[in-house]
UniProtKB/TrEMBL annotation, chain A:
A GO MF label: ABC-type amino acid transporter activity
Key words, A-Z: ATP-binding, Cell membrane, Membrane, Nucleotide-binding, Transport
Keyword Cell membrane: yes
All copies of domain ABC transporter, residue ranges: 7-252
Name of the protein this chain belongs to: ATP-binding cassette domain-containing protein
Membrane topology: Peripheral membrane protein
Automatic annotation (TrEMBL), chain B:
Protein location: Cell inner membrane; Cell membrane
Gene Ontology CC terms, in alphabetical order: ATP-binding cassette (ABC) transporter complex
Matches recorded under PANTHER family: ARGININE ABC TRANSPORTER PERMEASE PROTEIN ARTQ (PTHR30133:SF2), CATIONIC AMINO ACID TRANSPORTER, MEMBRANE COMPONENT (PTHR30133)
Source organism per UniProt: Azoarcus taiwanensis
Keywords: Cell inner membrane, Cell membrane, Membrane, Transmembrane, Transmembrane helix, Transport
UniProt xrefs under InterPro entries: AA_ABC_transptr_permease_3TM (IPR010065), ABC_transp_permease_HisMQ (IPR051613), MetI-like (IPR000515), MetI-like_sf (IPR035906)
TM helices/strands, residue ranges: 20-40, 60-77, 83-105, 146-170, 190-212
Domain ABC transmembrane type-1: start-end pairs: 14-209
Keyword Transmembrane: yes
Name of a matching Pfam family: BPD_transp_1
Protein name as annotated: ABC transporter permease subunit
Amino acid sequence: MTSPAALEVVDIHKRYGEHEVLRGIDLTAHDGDVISIIGSSGSGKSTLLRCLNLLEQPSRGEIRLRGEKLDLREDRHGDLHAVDRKQLERMRARIGFVFQSFNLWPHLNIVDNVTLAPMRVLGLDRRSAVEQAEALLARVGLADKRNAYPGNLSGGQQQRVAIARTLAMSPEVILFDEPTSALDPELVNEVLGVMRSLADEGRTMLIVTHEMRFARDVSSQVMFLHQGRVEEPGPPSEVFTSPRSERCREFLASHL
Amino acid sequence: MELHGFGHLLLAGTWVTLQLAFTSLVFGLLLGLVGAAAALSPIGPLRWAAVGYNTLMRGIPELLLVLIIYFGATHVIEWMTGAYVDIGAFTAGVIALSIAFGAYATEVFRSAMLEIPKGQREAAMALGMSRWDSFRYITLPQLWRLALPGLGNLFLVLLKDTALVSIIGLDDLMRQAYVAAGFTKLPFTFYMAAAMIYLLLTIVSMQVIQLLERWANRGYRGARA
């Protein structure tokens, strides 16, 4: 028997009033999968990612983490909320999320940014949390910044800290929501380099990105989204070199 | 300045004024935090209660509030418990000044909370932190930094509003000056002395507030610790 997929979502819908942003998306991430989600802005990529850990409320659909289904309940606006807040928090702790705008906490120094969640959520004692944080900061090349505050770092450095903060929770899946879109061009590569090393060590990752070359190099699967639907799924060798859909072809032509 | 032996009275009054100001500050801050949380709550009735509290307390002169609470609280307690309890000038003063301070502090805290970008709470959520932990470790510590300038101002106002409580007979600095002035027939001397003391308290408070602000802003000034 094969073990259940790391993350499986079925038929995710999201509507804002009359406007339907996601129209039924299925997605399965097995261990070690690196799935890139591409598409023009407004195609629902980021919304999809944010629905997976309920930063955004989906309108319909199922989310399973390692076979465990997240219990959802509909509110009167038709949005789905977690029935059990504790279950949601447990699942979020196992799903990493890296934001476009980093979202580091400006009042905490870098080490405290990385250690807070492991201490509060996983119950790590300070000493092991700090030890872990230092190892992770070294890994993203920022060991010397441990006492700096986010405001003193460049965007690329902040995003690398944010990745370290996520790794500190030892997530089973990591979601990247356009992690390099807010960066100056010369800072993009340092972040992509860290992500590449994560992919190389077999992390399970979902990446919403506009970096097509990167997506082609690291992904095991690519999903091209258009108007809230998966227009073209497939291995990067196919999607990037011989896309079947006209829209995907057009999109790639303007982005490669 | 010759105080004709009334100096110790003024000092005793100063001590009462300080106790009144700081006690009201503590309760007022708590009320302000609760008020701001209610004002931003997704629950309708809580929001309405916050708006009602705010409007009512900011719409009544504080002197009137002091009088209403001093004379009214006894009636309310008697009506609720049947017992006649005299709440005393100090307690009445603390209640009146706290709820007035709290109403203004609600606004200060509310706008401070809105100043913290939503992404910071989302980051906490995405890491599996509870709402309480997110409030305790992300919102609250930044709230002080953002609210301090506004709260500092409110405290300076509060410090001088304590003088209103002298009207219900609390032996604060204001009343002691009044008593001494009446006894010695030297009103200018004693009111000037009281004014100097209020001024001194204000200057010291401003220094402390400035220190607190500097402390709260560490890490925001490009200092690599």
